[in-house]
Here is the input.
Amino acid sequence: MMEKGGGENPIRINKYACACAIVASMISIIFGYDTGVMSGAMIFVKEEFKINDAKTEVLAGILNLCALVGSLCAGRTSDYIGRRYTIVIASLIFLCGSVIMGYGPSYAILLLGRCVAGLGVGFALMIAPVYSAEVSSPSSRGFLTSLPEVGISIGILLGYLSNYIFSRLSLRLGWRMMLGIAAIPSFFLAIGILKMPESPRWLIMKGRLGDAKKILYKVSNDPQEAEFRLREIKQAVGIDENCNDDIVKIPDSVKSQGEGVWKELLLRPTPSLRWILIAGVGIHFFEHATGIEAVILYSHKIFDKAGVHDHSHQILATVGVGFTKFIFIVLSTFLIDKAGRRKLLLTSLSGMVVTLTALGIFLTLAENSGGKLIWALVLSIITTYAVVMFFNIGLGPVTWVYSAEIFPLKYRALGAGIGVAVNRLMNATVSMSFLSISAAITTGGAFFLFAGISVVALIFFYFFLPETKGKSLEEMEAVFTRGRRSENVNREVEIVKH
Here is the structure.
């Protein structure tokens, strides 16, 4: 079955490709666990080391600043040594960070562990979606490339549950167990990923046609699809589509070569490549500028402001955040190849504008009443879950799918790395400033700010992000052309009229 065009073919998921994406997504589970567990661990770290809000914000956000560096390094690394070995490196770096955090005799050492783990996170966030996208068929790429985001959701939920379980231990042991236990799955993932194949697109980019062809036959639904995908990738790389040599020399002009690729992507991009870069960076910027990290990382603070003051009750309420995230991220993975990326994004942002505004209102009422308005407390918790719901039905998973699939092969690793760097920068900005912003304009005021940013994001997505559902990776440059965009918009208008 040759899958091309508008995605008219039924969705078929190759079991081997699915297994590859699942294993690659394990690194995302580990990262998600660290994000979720830190939400609760911070309560006990702050109590043991007697740190103020400024140091708490640094502890929360430093991981993302280091992840920014890691993601930029990962792009170059994955082009040199391959996607698979880059995942191994990510696992080993995160293992070291987890061990240091679990040891954590002082605030400074704990901060060092967060920095090391952050480098691993940067590698993981960049490489897992790219690897999944490159082994997937066009019709199932949305589902398989969403799996890393599902992994993050599972990890966050496990982190919240770990908070609840280990909070019963002594102050000195409890939070160290929460943070250090992530070293175990990191070790097994580093070994397990070696059983997975390399990305066929990376192999072709290195001239290894024979190896790539064998893998494409495994990850495609039938031989016809494998041959079709092979021909498309050959054309994209500049190889004669009738060439059947196992090893070929790739022209220097199409190799992913460090400085030259940087210049072509950032300084001298074609109009379509410039549009792709704006879309890829923009979607990563708005994923965290709209405030989801404040909800995930500081949910215990939100519930405290709403009137839930008991630590165990706060942690239990955050478990509900984790369950909500997991349920709707899974739902999104089944919708993304049917409904399309664009429709999910616009629905997600519309819901976030409403729920973030509502959360701002209810938190303001609850905070001003000193926790006496029980209905405001209940509605604050409900709308917190609603924000998480709308984020994870669209913006959360689509960000990673979209940015991993739109860049041409030559620029994919670099483009994805830049997108993740922006993503981590915004994540760090929100996580390291939320407490300060809340103190300045109240917690409710902070969510009014995020609602306003969500309106801007909605406008940006409407005008700058075309639909990519059902398109092969080699078709993306054609999608991001003004003529093609006008044609798609006219078609949307006609559909609305009828």
Remarks:
- The chain is about 80% helix and 0% strand.
- Residues 1-9, 485-498 have pLDDT under 50 and may be disordered.
